[in-house]
């Protein structure tokens, strides 16, 4: 997947890593090799209640907020080899709710 998908400064790549405990997402400019914004389940408040799918949706919303602060509106979605199902889909839907378009 990553061989075909590249992010630029205007339209960065939204990369996802899914672990057994949580999910991580970041916006990457592949031309310069820099991360422009990121969000993860470790940044959620301790009072957050919900399963891992709800956790992923919240991470997507927080990533969209961080992207707005960085001045990013459109991204290229990189599912990282994971199926577009479950937590990956929940993160994508949360990011779209937050205002990102892809």
Any key phrases for this structure?
102 residues; Nucleotidyltransferase, domain 5; alpha+beta; 2 helices; four-stranded mixed β-sheet; 29% helix
How much is the radius of gyration in Å? Answer: 13 Å
Q: What is the count of helical runs?
A: 2
Q: Kindly report how far apart the N and C termini lie.
A: 16 Å
Instruction: Tell me the strand percentage band.
Output: 15-25%
Low-pLDDT runs: none
CATH class designation: Alpha Beta
Please give the largest β-sheet.
4 strands, mixed
Q: Helices and strands: which structural class?
A: alpha+beta
Reported by name, the CATH topology is Nucleotidyltransferase, domain 5
Going across the biggest sheet, name each strand in turn.
3-2-1-4
Average pLDDT score: 94
The CATH architecture term is: 2-Layer Sandwich
Total domains: 1
Backbone shape:
globular
SSE order in H/E notation?
Answer: EEEHEH
* Total E-strand runs: 4
State the share of residues found in helices, binned by percent: 25-40%
Give the topology.
Blueprint: E1 13-18, E2 23-29, E3 34-40, H1 52-69, E4 76-78, H2 87-98
Parallel strand pairs: 1-4
Antiparallel strand pairs: 1-2, 2-3
Helix pairs in contact: 1-2
Describe the protein in words.
The protein has two helices and four strands. A four-stranded mixed beta sheet has the order 3-2-1-4. Strand 1 and strand 2 form a beta hairpin. The protein has a single domain, classed as Nucleotidyltransferase, domain 5 (2-Layer Sandwich), CATH 3.30.420. It is of the alpha+beta class and 102 residues long. The mean pLDDT is 94. The chain has helices at residues 52-69, 87-98; strands spanning 13-18, 23-29, 34-40, 76-78.
